[in-house]
Amino acid sequence: MGLLKNLPKVDKFVNNKAFEELSKQLITSISKDTINQYRQDILDEKIQDFTQDDIINDVLKKYQDITKPSLQKVINATGIIVHTNLGRSLINPDSFDRAKKVATSYNNLEYSLQEGKRGERYEHIVSTLQALTGCEDAVVVNNNASAVFLILNTFAKNKEVVVSRGELVEIGGSFRVPEVMSQSGAKLKEIGTTNKTHLRDYENAIDEDTSMLMKVHKSNYSIEGFTSEVSYEEIIKVAQEHDVIDYYDMGSGHMIDLPYNLDLSEPSLIKYMKHKPSLLSFSGDKLLGSVQAGIIVGKKELIAKIKKNQLLRMLRVDKITLAILEDNLTSYLKGQTQDIPTLKMLHEDVKTLEQRANTLKQSIEDICKCEVIKTQSLIGGGTTPNKKIPTIALTLEYKDYKANKIEKLLRKQNLIIRIENEKVLIDFRSIQEHEIKEIQEIIRGVFN
User: Fold this and answer.
1) Under 8 Å CB-to-CB from 8, ≥6 apart: which residues?
2) Alpha-carbon distances, residue 288 vs 269, 296, 343 (angstroms)
3) What is the reported pLDDT for 252?
4) What is the pLDDT of residue 171?
5) Domain 75-83+344-447, CATH 3.90.1150.180 — does that match?
6) Is 374 exposed, middle or buried (0-12, 13-18, 19+ CB in 10 A)?
7) Residue 253, by phi and psi: left (phi above 0), alpha (psi -120 to 50) or beta?
8) N6-(pyridoxal phosphate)lysine occurs at which residues (predicted)?
């Protein structure tokens, strides 16, 4: 019972000088809980002795843990460029700075500077997308899943949408095409088989209830062997002949040629726009290399109907997203694709990666056993499924530590690596050049 008498009164305790610069309300709440926990531990005979400084330090630690940002910067040393768990595409700092000027000032988000009256927020990216793709009009929502839902709800509510069975995909977060269709009010009409769908399947499926022929990009898997699918160009032609809408959910559509023959498995937005499709949608933060967004391009009369859908107000993007997206699209328009970090990493020469790996090796090989190796990595983000690209990695060993232990130690310092064949790999395909010095300091700090 003597220890209980030593517990401080909360109202006096919170006035300690150690808490002067901190939130009084939060300190009071934490102090109450901490002192109550000390009281319970004393009664349970878990504590034999303590000082007031012990309680102060416990309160300060809890305060720091609570107020520390949960969303933090990490170094992506996995080699996966579009890493969904690590925020997908990087934003160019210059693009962000330009967007910051807009976001921290009043701006013409929905105001026409030419006409001096209310304008439309989507106008800021439409002209750029028209110049890039040849589309008639465009609209942007918060991600491609929203784009899919909005398009189906606008044009196929209580109507049939024809989709190949081989394209009824499920992507991350249990996002399933059939369930999205159901939620949107559209009626799914499956055609073909899992491995084979023919043009005649689309033609035979069209009747008076058909609203749309939909193609879905197989973003996270591939079907190989005895297979066949109908090209989007052929679907467009059939749709036009039967006066129905054609729509391609492209997933991670890209605008420039990709290295390592990746164009063979990843659809090109520019390629398909030449065929005058009804509607296309794709993600902003995958191979486009911009912010999270769902971009819809297509025929003007169809985009106009989408803009009238009341759901658009719930799914629309804000000024920061539009500012960064416009800046990135302008880089494409100017041919300055080196300003898009995702594309820069994807096109980085293997020799350059090897030089960077050797630089890091030379700076840490006195404390760790390491070796520069040639290997392969995936792009990630549901793009180019099962297609690997060449990369350079640095293996890392320390004493008798197992790979999982090293991974955990580095992860605590926000350095995210990958383990391959029970070896720790620091993959340079996804590492920024300015991060090499930071990685060196992390490794030396962990193992010294």
Assistant:
1) 35, 52, 55
2) 10, 13, 8
3) 84
4) 66
5) yes
6) exposed
7) beta
8) 286
Distances (CA, A) of 376 to 45, 83, 407, 416, 420: 57, 15, 19, 17, 11
Return the exposure string of 103-131: e unless at least 16 CB atoms fall within 10 Å of the residue's CB, then b. Answer: beeeeebeeeeeeeeebebbebbbebbee
Q: Are 43 and 35 in contact (CB under 8 A)?
A: no
Q: Is the pTM of this model over 0.85?
A: yes
Mean pLDDT of 362-388: 90
- pLDDT per residue as tens digits for the range 191-235: 999 889 999 999 999 999 999 999 998 766 666 667 888 999 999
Q: Where are the domains of the chain?
A: 2-67, 75-83+344-447, 93-337
Under 8 Å between Cβ of 362 and 355? no
Which tokens sit at 131?
Answer: 């110049």
pLDDT for 293:
97
According to DSSP, the residues that pair with 175 across neighbouring strands are 171
- Cβ 38 vs Cβ 16: under 8 Å: no
pLDDT tens for each residue of 419-432: 999 999 999 999 99
CB contact set of 162 (below 8 Å; sequence gap of 6+): 189, 191, 202, 205, 206, 210, 212, 213, 214
Residues 93-337, CATH architecture:
3-Layer(aba) Sandwich (3.40)
Q: Determine the Cα–Cα distance for residues 234 and 248; give it in Å rounded to an integer.
A: 12
Per-residue pLDDT, 222? 67
Alpha-carbon distance of 130 to 87, in angstroms, equals: 28
Q: In what order do the strands lie in the sheet with 418-420?
A: 369-378, 388-397, 423-427, 418-420
pLDDT tens-place string over residues 75-90: 999 999 999 999 999 9
The C-alpha atoms of residue 286 and residue 445 are separated, in whole angstroms, by 34
Flag whether pLDDT at 174 surpasses 70. Answer: no
